[in-house]
Amino acid sequence: MGRGKAGPSQYCQRTVSSDDTPLDDIHSGSGLVAEKAKRLQKLDDLRHQGTNPYPYRFDRTTTLGALRKEHGTLEPGTETEIQVAVAGRVMLLRDSGKLIFATMRDRDDEVQLFISKAVVGDEAFDAIKGLDLGDWVGAHGTVMTTRKGELSVKVERLELLSKAVRPMPDKWHGLTDTDTRFRQRYADLIVNDEARKNFRVRHEIIASFRRTLHGRGYIEVETPVLHVEAGGAHARPFITHHNTLDMQLYLRIALELHLKRLIVGGMERVFEIGRIFRNEGISTRHNPEFTMMELYQAFADVEDVIEITETLITQAAIDATGTSVVTVFRPDGGSEEIDLAQPWRRARMIDLVEEATGVAVHPSQPVEDLRALAAQHGVSVNPRWGSGKIIEELFEATAEHTLIAPTFVTGHPVEISPLARVDRNDPHLTERFELFVGARELANGYSELNDPVEQRLRFEDEQAAKDAGDAERGTVDEDYLRALEYGLPPTGGLGIGMDRVAMLIAGVNSIKEVILFPTLRPEAF
RNA sequence: GCCCCUCUAGCUCAAUGGUUAGAGCAGUGGACUUUUAAUCCAUUGGUUCAGGGUUCGAGUCCCUGGGGGGGCACCA
Predict the structure, then answer these.
(1) Which residue is closest to B26 in terms of CA–C1' distance?
(2) Span A296-336, pLDDT tens digits
């Protein structure tokens, strides 16, 4: 806080007229510079009249949504005595001489302001004529409807709450330029209903997840973003540095290893919704930072987390949009409607590959056989890869694009699943699933490997692959192994990509539509 | 990193290689007391992303660079 000296702040002293630019030059024309100059001049004029164009607060009595809910059914031509105070942004102005109609919008609705010269008086009416599209205003008045039945507030007193000195985008077409929409998300949100809707849906999904999980006794936790080792997934990390400790740190690429430490600690059911960071490409499905929900449940296995996955996503769709029917985009550019309330398909990865190639595959097969099959299907193979990794590559090349309706792909090879428990019926596979919808991976879960001796061996295989040049492979996390040595109960774990769930339920085809500020190259100013 | 597309007024968009780059909205001036993207009359506003080049002539064609989009690669 500054010292409470009375009088205007030093920052208010600067005026348009103190600028070097000749006013005549700046006030002519209507480019951006001229428009801003005109509006800045209005600020000067208001201050000289003793009006603060940026007052500190406004006490509204109702929101526009509540106003419509309460009075939306009034007959046309109704005048009431009901006094209200509303606040919002001026989106449209219709001036018909001694009567001005303004469309005011607040967070959840729009209502018309009916401003009559005879009601507010000549002086106030002239001031209102100085309003610009985009200004924030507060209005005191009574509830009425026009002859045509438009719900309105008949304004008795109007207060400028904040002057917009930059003009709004096109009042009808809004903003369409993607560059501007993503860089200036504030402008996108002001004018594009669709953008506001998408982020509302995202919020409802996350709220729904929390409700479902709280209802099942999960505890929400927060674990470190700065990691000494970037584990829990195969991805390239962002690297940063801590000055005081003088050490390299990584931004997390997964939540997994810390959350499972908490299960060791006896918390039994934990989840975290958090940002993770992967130093990889940007696309319609990838942003370098994105939001993951991971949960871990003691005494559960992969079957339990499959059930939770289906419930979480279907319930979120219902909570966010009122229906379990979603539009799924196919890789071929088409789309189809799918009801998430229908049972979701389950198929083993090896069976999907066999379905697509006509050849039975299994990680126990000699790697040469699988290399030959990969070659037949144009899948290039790294010589370091074993049979399991090649099967995964074959799956991605031949089967993944066909998985439009929700499908749990199960039984991933051990080689590509260093933290998952081996299948109780097949030592070459794991008790694992990945959920695909619209050929996109949305979730990943498994029965957690809790044998510290086996986990060490798996980590050592990861370390060996990393040392051999595979930057995305993992390392031996000694502290995690120490935790496992204390005893991790049988545990089921799950990770869900929240951005992709939001894309699915909002019905959009780009991750940038559900991330408020997607990663972009810096703008040149 | 590679390939394709794109960039024109504050916003949304026009403009066969050929006058001085045009519209709508926003803005400005005027009319109007029930409008609904109000309407009507008048009107201001341009480094056509930047820099080169070809040409008598470039917003338009070519090259280089930049932003964005899409695809590929990368990506449990």
Answers:
(1) A170
(2) 999 999 999 999 999 999 999 999 999 999 999 988 888 89
Cα–Cα distance, A213 to A207 (Å, whole number): 10
Instruction: Estimate in Å the CA A28 to C1' B19 gap, whole number.
Output: 27
Phi then psi dihedrals of residue A283, to 5 deg: -150, -170
Give the model confidence (pLDDT) of A472-521 as tens digits: 788 899 999 999 999 999 999 999 999 999 999 999 999 999 999 999 88
ipTM, two decimals, is: 0.91
Rounded distance, CA A479 to CA A447, Å? Answer: 21
What are the distances in angstroms from CA A52 to CA A49, A56, A160, A192, A361?
9, 9, 8, 30, 75
Q: What share of chain A is helix, strand, coil (3-state, %, to 5)?
A: 35, 25, 40
Query: CA A185 → C1' B1, Å?
Result: 29
| B chain positions with any atom within 7 Å of a protein CB | 1, 9-13, 24-28, 31-39, 44-46, 66-76
Residue with CA nearest B30 C1'? A97
pTM beyond 0.90: yes
8-state DSSP, A246: T
How are beta strands A136-145 and A110-116 bridged, if at all?
unpaired
